[in-house]
Write a structure and sequence with these properties.
It contains 20 helices and 18 strands. It is of the alpha/beta class. The strands form four sheets. It has a six-stranded mixed sheet with strand order 1-2-10-7-8-9, with helices on both faces. Strands 5-4-3-6 form a four-stranded parallel sheet, sandwiched between helices. The protein is globular.
């Protein structure tokens, strides 16, 4: 089968629409991690993503009669644009089913290429099921985004280009994984011709369908996926992509959203281009791998897979990039409520840059301040905390405290003395119409909401912090309400950030 894929890749029809993208050096990142990093620039394709390779190869191989009837696809963005462009080039009609939550910029891009767009459901899976049924009803071809040999082969042409562009030694190639089509094509080609090169997949921690599937030995369906890296937000990988990854992929790394944000910044600093979160996954994984293995002076390649970035996400990326790179520490510091305290605090901080400072008067004895400080690494943050504590200033590290990073930094306003029986929970609401009302409708009218903070991060889940007054005798009923709700949640009632600034 590997030989079959080698032939499929060598004979793939992609270059009528795709271009051979550059393999660019990343000098700043290379210098920082002491390894040579090369970026395969799929963000430079006409549709700003590698997806057109697989879509066009599949559609170019269809019989003329099938093309004449048109095609159907489901996508939240990148595959949709690839299918639309292929249809335009081949002179056939295309209907793309997209979730209702798809950003308008992606809908407009697909329609501009002449494809019809149907909005259906709140998630990709809803759109996929609708599109599959539509294709069956019409008797037309369904263009799968990843689980199809011709789509896999089209994506595999990236590997063909990489080995031609860099025939020398390569330690590893890092590839983002959603459904698995891209890494399957790359691995099938690389392992046939250069088995010494490691092929390593990268997934977000909250969208790790391939990692979980390989661990389990079968295709696992995730109950839900994180949407920050929406280009790889797939609940279940393909059967064929799972088979190929199990046979050919050397390892899969998981990275968090902060690491992805840091990788977006890394790519920007070297290229002045802004890739989407899924487009930066490979760089985030590469950095984690180098740190994990303590590698020096190796050549590694990361596939920058796409640049369909939603503009409204840039604020979140900017906020979290420094944290992901461990170049910002978030501290809660207790200082005496007296003249000169702030000056003493600043003297102890020294020449380090204060990135954020939040404070509100609480009482006559002491004050709690929320402060962000630029540091070179985590060790410097630890030393700074020790300096503060040695000078009788209580300091707590909030750098890894999600509630502090997502909510508290935006709402430091003092303690509430008149609220009794308050419990604090952090929720992930699906960022779709009706999510909040669903919560409120299920919640008993007896429980009063005493605190509420919501932050929208584009296509990511809505992060919600809620304080609710629940009498002790109703705790069991409240627990049942949480279990029946169906949303991810964390009890933050004992979180130090809450105790410091809001309780």
């Amino acid at each position: 089968m590997i030989n079959d894929y080698l032939e499929r890749i060598l004979t793939a029809h992609v270059y009528d629409v795709a271009v051979e993208t550059r393999l660019d050096s990343a000098p700043l990142l290379s210098a920082r991690i002491h390894n040579r990093v090369l970026l395969k620039r799929e963000d430079k394709q006409q549709v700003f993503s590698f997806k057109l390779r697989g879509a066009y190869n599949k559609m170019a191989r269809l019989h003329a009669e099938a093309l004449q009837q048109g095609v159907v696809a489901a996508s939240a963005g990148n595959h949709a644009q690839g299918v639309a462009l292929a249809a335009q080039k081949l002179g056939c009609s295309a209907t793309i089913v997209m979730p209702t939550t798809t950003p308008q910029i992606k809908i407009n891009a697909v329609m501009a290429m002449g494809a019809a767009v149907l909005l259906q459901g709140d998630s990709y899976n809803d759109a996929y099921e609708y599109a599959l049924n539509l294709a069956r009803e019409k008797g037309v071809e369904f263009i799968h985004p990843y689980d199809d040999p011709d789509v896999i082969a089209g994506q595999g042409t990236i590997a063909m280009e990489i080995l031609r562009q860099h025939p020398g030694k390569i330690h590893a190639i890092f590839v983002p994984i959603g459904g698995g089509g891209l890494i399957s094509g790359i691995a099938a080609y690389v392992k046939r011709l250069r088995p010494d090169i490691r092929v390593i997949g990268v997934e977000p921690e909250d969208s790790n369908a391939m990692y979980r599937s390989l661990q389990a030995g079968y295709c696992v369906e995730l109950p839900q996926v994180g949407l920050f890296a929406d280009g790889v937000a797939v609940r279940q990988v393909g059967k064929e992509t799972f088979r190929l990854c199990r046979e050919l992929v050397d390892d899969i790394l998981l990275v968090d959203s902060d690491a992805i944000c840091a990788a977006i910044k890394d790519i920007f600093e070297d290229t002045r281009s802004i890739v989407e979160p899924s487009g930066a996954l490979s760089v985030a994984g590469l950095k984690a791998y180098v740190k994990q293995k303590n590698l020096l002076h190796e050549t590694m390649i990361a596939v920058a897979s796409g640049a369909n970035m939603n503009f409204d996400r840039l604020r979140h990326v900017s906020e979290r990039a420094e944290l992901g790179e461990q170049r910002e520490a978030i501290l809660a510091v207790t200082i005496p409520e007296k003249p000169g305290s702030f000056k003493q605090f600043c003297n102890l901080i020294g020449t380090r840059n204060i990135t954020e400072f939040n404070y509100r008067y609480a009482d006559s004895q002491q004050a709690h301040v929320f402060v962000g400080i630029s540091v070179r690494n985590r060790e410097e943050a630890t030393k700074l905390i020790q300096i503060l504590q040695d000078n009788d200033l209580r300091a707590e590290d909030m750098t890894d405290n999600e509630m502090a990073k997502l909510h508290i930094r935006h709402m430091v306003g003092g303690h509430s003395r008149g609220v009794s029986n308050e419990v604090l929970y952090r929720f992930e609401f699906p960022d779709r119409p009706g999510a909040l009302m669903n919560f409120l409708n299920k919640m008993s009218d007896r429980w009063n909401i005493s605190l509420f903070h919501y932050r929208n991060h584009g296509a990511d889940f809505g992060r919600v912090l809620i304080g609710i007054q629940v009498p002790p005798q109703e705790k069991e009923e409240f627990t049942h309400f949480l279990d029946d709700l169906g949303y991810e949640f964390d009890d933050e009632s004992n979180n130090l950030a809450y105790q410091f600034f809001l309780a």
